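Sample intake sheet
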Amino acid sequence: MTNINIGPFKFAPYLKTVLWGGENIAPFKSISTNLHSIGESWEISGVEEHLSVVAEGPEQGKTIDDLVAKYGPRLVGEKVYKKFGNKFPLLVKIIDAKRDLSVQVHPDDELALRRHNCLGKIEMWYVIDAKPGSTIYSGLSQPLTPQEYERRIAEKSIMDVVARHDSHQGDVFVIPPGRVHSIGAGNLLAEIQEASDITYRVYDFDRRDKDGNPRQLHTAQAKEAIDYNVYDNYKIAYDRQARGLTQLFDCPYFTVKRLIVDNSHTMTLPEPHSFVILMCLDGQVQFTCNHCGPAATMHRGETVLVPAIATRIDLEGNATLLTVNID
């Protein structure tokens, strides 16, 4: 084991203004900006067009792929580096929906590689806050055929068969490839996904863009990507009263856990393992990790990348966090 210290790293958020965005992200993150209608804050991004850039410290100004190229497995882990090389494989966001997002579907890896030469997308949502009456749209309420889908798009009745779920703080939804979905108005949530920005827009409530043009739909592309089945449950169940570390979701692409820190908590990381992303949803903590630099502080709205060479993270304070890694 090398004695070199790496990170931890904080990145400058990429703030994305959109027609459905709100005004909650900047105060949530305690940042000042002249931007309005911010719908997304890309916290850590391996998407080529918007690679995250280190915000402070000796590596300030370098992209996340620069870091992976420099530190390799010591940053991301042996298994991750072997699979993805110098590309960081995840995209982590905060999303604020003042209005309903368009209804969408994402292709799986096979379809995305064939059509776009990139990864598909599975994503997970953790609801940070939800106004009363907020809704998450996920899945279908009745089975469809591809022909019925096309007919309902033409008739503008697709929302009659999209499943709606009441949304509350702490709810967890997983959106696998093929699942029709949308974030309803009033939701502030964290999104963890593969580093892909491929989306097929199924329906957009007849909205128009800033130039007055109907927003493009991807009816034909989505037809091949959609999973037309109905499932028993679209929401992830977990012990909401548990303290410490609680697993929320695990798949080959990422593992997400909720961490509640009451005064102090130590994470002992098994070897070998990947990087760990810490995403602070509430409160504040000071943390140290072995093989990293000096102690650092995280407050609500901040996200930090801890390198794979760290085998222990000590946290002090009171906070709710998400942890993200690749098992």
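Comment: The chain has a mean pLDDT of 94. The CA atoms of residues 128 and 189 lie 5 Å apart.
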